[in-house]
Amino acid sequence: MAEQRATAAGGMETSYGFRNVEDGDKQPLVDAVFHKVANRYDLMNDLMSGGLHRLWKDAMVAWLNPPRRAGWHGLDVAGGTGDIAFRIVEASAGLAAATVLDINGSMLAVGQERARKRRLDGNVDFVEANAECLPFGDETFDAYTIAFGIRNVPHIDTALAEAFRVLKPGGRFLCLEFSEVEMPLLDKVYEAWSFRAIPQIGKAVTGDGEPYSYLVESIRKFPNQSNFADMIRRAGFERVAWRNYSGGIAALHSGWKL
Ligand SMILES: C[S@@+](CC[C@H](N)C(=O)[O-])C[C@H]1O[C@@H](n2cnc3c(N)ncnc32)[C@H](O)[C@@H]1O
Known about the structure:
two-stranded antiparallel ribbon; binds S-adenosylmethionine
């Protein structure tokens, strides 16, 4: 695959999948994708990952280890249909609060309905806003999480600076994202699955393969584990570390505001 990954020096702001776009044009294109896929988003996640996304999300919240105490408040950015926020509340035995923030009202509407059905709407609130400009004061949250979201945000450095700003001192940053596969045979299988099968499955299930081509291409463009760790450090986070899942198909980056 000829397309090169973006690096810590940038590149994601003007790449919509493998297409180069003007700075400022990426976000509306991304928004159109998620408006289209919102209603089938959770089903497609299971089909595309064979259910693995559930295990990776469980691992994320296990590493976060939210305390069983009222008053603890997590912000889940690009939180979409609520998977991470729900897990946080459940892991805290129903004591923590979580805010799901997403730029896309269609994704949030699905999330709100799911929260209501799970009776989690007392602990979880939903905010429609941009990760690049968070509508919260400085030092508001105990943790900032973002799962499979950051590669869709055009200006990643701005989003990371905002994460740092809204966290309390001692707050935790965790980012789950597709990353660089580090196992020689798996990378070939994964590439074939991603570029051949996923858009076809998307087309069969939703009638339109294009949004899934974007999702796959954006995964291939995202900076690898160590470059992304550099970006997190540059935003001011300390003790930055990551764990690979499934050979690096996904990676979970952690940092602290100390
Ligand atoms: C792949 S989904 C991830 C949803 C959820 N976190 C999960 O893991 O299932 C990516 C989400 O990022 C959101 N998003 C894209 N750009 C954003 C931005 N600038 N600010 C906030 N959310 C954004 C999309 O609307 C979409 O809901």
